[in-house]
Specification:
alpha+beta; five-stranded antiparallel beta sheet; rod-shaped; binds ligand C2E; binds magnesium ion
């Protein structure tokens, strides 16, 4: 009879044994001699007796998962339990329905009255095993994901040492896997960033997650900007993914640079220049020291740009920027407003003469020849100077006043420096008002043409008229061109105005022709801007066609300086006009600097001797020489000569005596309106 513990230990022990949720067995010899209800239920049996008196391997598949024979293994396990007192292992059981389950078996050996008894408890570990298996499976999946991730991923232990880094982390930093394991964030970041990083990680510990931008130091010492997303895992470890944001940073920097700088020269643009000037003014006010604003515009840059081409024009602007940069001190401010306009703020200047010295120096530096595309190019600046605090206390006023002074420098013959003055301001204000009024006048067609006859010296008949524009204003009456043409040129308004003049002059000539005066020619003044305009040729051609005129009935007057600014391009345009049959005259001849060789090349018909030489022709032998020489020169070149501003019969006689072809001046008629001129046509003078 086998030993039965329940016999001696009483009811309470039996109840405990029976009620245990874990299947429990008693083994004696190598047989189950007792089991509880859980054991019976577990294996799906209904009768306890079916289970007892069996070898433990009987309730199992023939082999265990490790391949060992179940009987042999059961024997071995029991032997170990008896030997060590306690033995725990996993065992695969088989239920009555044939299904298997894995249990953790604990065998405890007890010696009762010299007989070895084994107390055996099973715990079903299917669920645990399943979770483990799942975990193992998902860990490999997670690992796959981590390794394949585009971001560098780090898992650090509670001490911040990396336990895991993915391949991308080793690629990004250039360290091998082994080196990175055990490192911490502080080993991978520049020391000056550490205080900030420590603060951020403090925040991570408090909040559980954080996002931050930081710089990692790669193995080769390069700093790599990254965006770090980190969180604390359930076990206290830290999971962090770092995105390489070099490209984004570079794009951001580029955008930032472009927003603040002029893309061509790399100098500050208008916006940042204004910002910097405002800051500099605040400092100047606080420290009570003066400050100077230099407004700089290149002389005849447009002509240079047209001749050399835009790429060379750009190269010239870049070099001007570099020369300016080299001329100023580190806390001065330099910017390009656009086109050929530059501004320099001398932030720490002692006084006005010091600023003037710097401006003069810049004049010299920029005036040196430039070599662009193997060509020597000369260009000069006009510079205007305004002072803080005398000429203005805010950015806008100072810039405006320096601009006004720059315009003054232009009108003083360019290539010079001018200071702002309150008189200049008045002048500038008038100019601004006039520009506005001109614009309105153009829309309202408040202009009219007057005509001044040109007399043939031989026949004393009117052979042509010069159209001269006037501005009819409601308040100031008739305004003469001397007062508004320059402003119209500077503002570009001369283009529409000039087209109106050509159209109106041709319309008028057509009307006179229709009334029988078919031999009269029309002279029209052109401005430099018109001559440069791409539209000119087609516009003139269309206008001639519109009024049924031939080219030789129109004479266009240009000045020497217009041609000198850009001889090649200009001569090309003039040739095209000449091919259309149009006559060309050089106006105000003698007042500008002409090169005789250029004059020879120019496809012109007529020279107009300027009024200033005619005026004193009787009293000044110099003027007489100029007039007679001009006539001789013109005739030698096959050109005709018109003398302007002939006021007296004596002037006329001298000019005619020296062979002048045509005469124009108050002696014959002032410029008059179309009706009055009609009365003059056909008369002899
Ligand atoms: P300009 O082409 O040399 O015209 C001759 C100027 O001399 C005219 O002045 C005329 O009134 C003046 N004048 C003619 N004979 C005499 C004289 O015997 N004595 C004196 N003291 N003056 C005389 P105006 O009409 O004031 O024109 C001035 C300038 O304005 C013109 O000089 C021309 O350069 C420009 N201008 C006039 N109309 C136009 C135009 O339609 N387009 C352009 N671009 N410029 C124009
Ligand atoms: Mg003229
Ligand atoms: Mg003239």
């Amino acid at each position: 009879m086998p030993y039965h513990p329940l016999d001696t230990e009483g009811d309470w022990f039996q109840q405990l044994f029976e009620a245990s949720p874990d299947p429990t067995w008693i083994i004696e010899g190598n047989r189950f001699v007792e089991c509880n209800a859980a054991a019976v239920r577990f294996l799906g049996y209904s009768c306890r007796d079916d289970l007892l008196n069996t070898h433990p391997s009987r309730l199992s598949p023939p082999r265990q998962p490790d391949g060992e024979d179940s009987y042999a293994k059961a024997e071995r396990m029991m032997a170990l339990a008896l030997e060590n007192g306690l033995h725990r292992f996993e065992w695969m059981h088989r239920k009555i329905d044939g299904s298997d389950f894995l249990a953790e078996v604990t065998l405890s050996a007890i010696h009762l009255e010299g007989r070895p008894i084994i107390y055996c408890v099973w715990r079903d570990i299917t669920e645990r095993k399943l979770t483990e298996a799942l975990l193992m499976k998902s860990e490999s999946r997670v690992k796959g994901i981590l390794e394949g991730a585009a971001d560098a991923i780090f898992i650090a232990d509670r001490q911040g040492r990396y336990q895991y880094v993915n391949q991308q982390a080793t690629r990004l930093l250039g360290y091998d896997h082994q080196t990175l394991i055990g490192m911490s964030i502080l080993d991978l970041t520049p020391e000056e960033d550490h205080p900030d990083i420590l603060l951020r990680f403090q925040e991570l510990l408090e909040v559980g997650e954080m996002r931050s931008e930081l710089r990692l130091t790669a193995a080769d010492g390069r700093l790599i900007p990254v965006e770090l997303n980190a969180c604390i895992l359930a076990d206290g470890c830290c999971f962090g993914s770092c995105r390489d944001i070099r490209e984004r940073k570079a794009a951001e920097e580029n955008i930032h640079f472009m927003a603040h700088h002029d893309t061509l020269t790399g100098l500050l643009n208008r916006r940042s220049l204004t910002e910097r000037l405002t800051q500099a003014l605040a400092t100047a006010k606080r420290d009570c020291h003066p400050l100077a604003v230099l407004f700089l515009d290149l002389d005849r840059f447009k002509a240079t740009n047209d001749t050399l081409g835009h790429a060379a024009g750009d190269a010239l602007l870049i070099e001007v920027g570099q020369r300016l940069n080299a001329s100023i001190r580190s806390n001065d401010i330099l910017g390009r407003l656009g086109g050929d306009e530059f501004v320099i703020v001398l932030a720490e200047i002692e006084d006005a003469p010091a600023a003037a010295r710097i401006a003069e120096k810049i004049l010299g530096t920029l005036g040196q020849p430039y070599t662009i595309d193997a060509h020597q190019v000369h260009i000069t600046p006009s510079i205007g100077l305004a002072f803080f605090p005398t000429d203005g206390e805010d950015c806008e006023t100072l810039m405006r006043h320096a601009d006004t002074a720059m315009y003054h420098a232009k009108s003083q013959g360019r290539n010079n420096v001018q200071f702002f003055s309150s008189e200049l301001d008045l002048f500038a204000m008038r100019r601004m008002r006039m520009e506005h009024d001109l614009r309105e006048a153009l829309a309202a067609r408040s202009f009219e043409l007057h005509y001044q006859p040109q007399i043939d010296a031989a026949t004393r008949r009117i052979v042509g008229v010069e159209a001269l524009v006037r501005w009819n204003t409601p308040n100031e009456g008739m305004v003469m061109p001397g007062e508004f043409i320059e402003i119209a040129e500077q503002s570009g308004l001369i283009l529409p105005l000039g087209e109106w003049v050509i159209d109106e002059a041709c319309r008028q000539l057509r009307a006179w022709h229709d009334r029988g005066y078919a031999n009269v020619r029309m002279a029209v003044n052109l401005s430099a801007l018109q001559l440069r305009s791409a539209n000119l040729l087609s516009f003139v051609e269309a206008t001639l066609l519109k009024y049924g005129m031939s080219g030789d009935q129109l004479e266009l007057e240009i000045t020497e300086s217009m041609v000198m600014d850009n001889p090649n391009a200009c001569i090309e345009k003039l040739r095209a006009l000449r091919r259309m049959g149009i006559r060309l005259a050089i106006d105000d001849f003698g007042t500008g600097y002409s090169s005789l060789s250029n004059l020879r090349l120019m496809p012109i018909h007529t020279l107009k001797i300027d009024r200033s030489f005619v005026r004193h022709i009787e009293s000044s032998s110099d003027d007489l020489v100029i007039c007679t020489a001009t006539i001789a020169l013109a005739h030698n070149l096959g050109l005709q000569v018109v003398a302007e501003g002939v006021e007296t019969p004596a002037q006329r006689d001298l000019l005619v005596g020296h062979g002048c072809d045509f005469l124009q001046g108050y002696l014959y008629s002032k410029p008059v309106d179309a009706n009055t001129l009609l009365g003059l046509l056909g008369t002899t003078h």
